[in-house]
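Allow me, if you will, to draw on your knowledge of protein folds for a short while. I am sending you one protein, given as its amino acid sequence and as whole-number tokens for its backbone shapes. Kindly check, if you would, that the fold set down in the tokens agrees with what the sequence suggests. The record follows directly beneath this note:
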Amino acid sequence: MPDLDDSPIRDESNDETPIVAILDYISAQSSELAEALSATGADVYVTSNWAMCSSADGLIIPSHDSVFDVARELNLVRGAELIDSRLIASKSVLAIGHAFNLLFELDEKSKVNNEKFQQWPGASTAREDETILGWQKVKADENSKLFANIHDQEFFFENQLFVSQWVLDAQGPLTAPKVSWVRSTESFVATVENGPLIATQFLPEKSKSAGHTFLKNWVKSL
């Protein structure tokens, strides 16, 4: 089981093991995710301790059933500031589920003020009478390292909001983000890999072997 203690996270006798912090907030869905990450060989901590979340090799922002609750409760633990500080230091952040949606503009119907969480242009919006609860095939970006050995696999989604267009283009020497999609009648973005910032609409911890491989590939990248 993952260590839930807020003790120092770097053991000098084991300093090559990647350390992953899962940001703990009131309604965070963390237990299954922590178990899946522990199976990758990472040292996993579920914590809201700022120092631990700042210094870990990787930080995960887990999901919850409601994007409103995710935004409200992340504000209580200074989640937006934490994300920004890690990105400035080029330290990896993985946002999952509704935490993915917070990184885009939300429409007024969501009644969520997520301005300080936004990292990318484009909108995450509801579709009339449409939610997804179940398995969808992801068409991975051909250059994605996180989808190594799991291209065109099915992953488990729980979402009411959708990013239907990707509008950020790489300019000058910048590397283009790697964007993977669910291709259907109305396609939507499944995952974005943009330097240290990774976000996925699906829930890897609920996606069986494909999701666990995704997490393992992410831990390898730290």
Remarks:
- The mean pLDDT is 88.
